[in-house]
Amino acid sequence: MASIAISGITIGIGVLGPAIGEGRAVATALSSLAQQPDASATITRTLFVGLAMIESLAIYCFVVSMILIFANPFWSHAIS
Prior knowledge:
The protein is an all-alpha fold. The protein is 88% helix and 0% strand. It has helices at residues 2-35, 40-70, 75-79. It is rod-shaped, with a radius of gyration of 18 Å. The chain starts with a helix and ends with a helix. The mean pLDDT is 88.
């Protein structure tokens, strides 16, 4: 039961950082595109690479959460 609660907390806290980071990155990219439309290919490519790096943190938190729910190594100690 505790692993389910901890996995929920892991997802809840672990998604806040990437969400804020992605929002700021997109806002900055849109303002850069408005100022320099001729550099749109470079800005867009850099934005997508940056978003992939930012999103990897949320994916890692999701994987840790799934491990806590379905493959908890401490489950046998909690039962006894």
